[in-house]
Design goal:
- The chain is an alpha+beta fold.
- The protein has a four-stranded antiparallel beta sheet.
- Helix 1 crosses helix 5, helix 1 crosses helix 7 and helix 3 crosses helix 5.
- The longest helix has 28 residues.
- It is elongated.
Length: 190
């Protein structure tokens, strides 16, 4: 693509990829458990979420949490604690299952029966760029009506697919869309 940046930050600009900011905002809307998995309360909350139904257990196994029912029971009773590696697996499985469970709800809220959702795009930070090299990049808003590809890529953890889906939406900004490949923040609500 002609507008893709190859050497971002070469002159001191700061920011993150637009699709990463979108993923961060979708994660915030997903409402994960705030207590860390390393604390007993957070561990129990995640384990209960992953084991409350047969469907949840199957989704957790599919997401990479392959432990026996006996091990889960011992962890839930507090007789044994999971290893650091198992804590990471629990967290990864929890986030994967939570994304899949919330995706359909978020999609309906963001699409709003075809009306879409207003998105605020905050431009990259140029405070460390020398004056002659700074460019005018203003705050922009955009109404996105089709969130299907974005939410699907986010729910499946497909970073490249999310990037492509996001770029397909910001092309609506016109010839300046490449200036918003890197941003400081992308804000929207559902």
């Amino acid at each position: 693509m002609p507008e893709r940046n190859k050497h971002f930050g070469l002159y001191g600009a700061r920011g993150i990829k637009g699709h990463e900011a979108v993923a961060r905002q979708l994660d915030a809307l997903a409402g994960y458990i705030a207590t860390p998995v390393t604390v007993r309360r957070g561990l129990l909350a995640r384990l209960h979420y992953l084991t409350r139904t047969d469907h949840a257990r199957a989704a957790a196994r599919e997401a990479g949490l392959a432990v026996t029912d006996r091990t889960l029971k011992v962890w839930l009773e507090g007789k044994r604690s999971p290893s650091r590696q198992n804590l990471q697996r629990i967290e990864r499985a929890y986030r994967t299952v939570r994304r899949e469970n919330v995706a359909r709800y978020l999609l309906a809220r963001l699409n709003r029966e075809g009306r879409g959702t207003r998105v605020e795009i905050h431009p990259l930070n140029q405070s460390h760029v020398a004056r002659p090299r700074q460019r005018v990049v203003e705050f922009r808003t955009l109404n996105i009506r089709h969130w299907d590809r974005i939410v699907q890529a986010w729910a499946s953890g497909d970073d490249r697919g999310l990037d492509d889906a996001w770029v397909d939406q910001i092309i609506d900004l016109g010839s300046q869309w490449g200036q918003y490949e890197y941003v400081t923040n992308v804000g929207f609500a559902a």
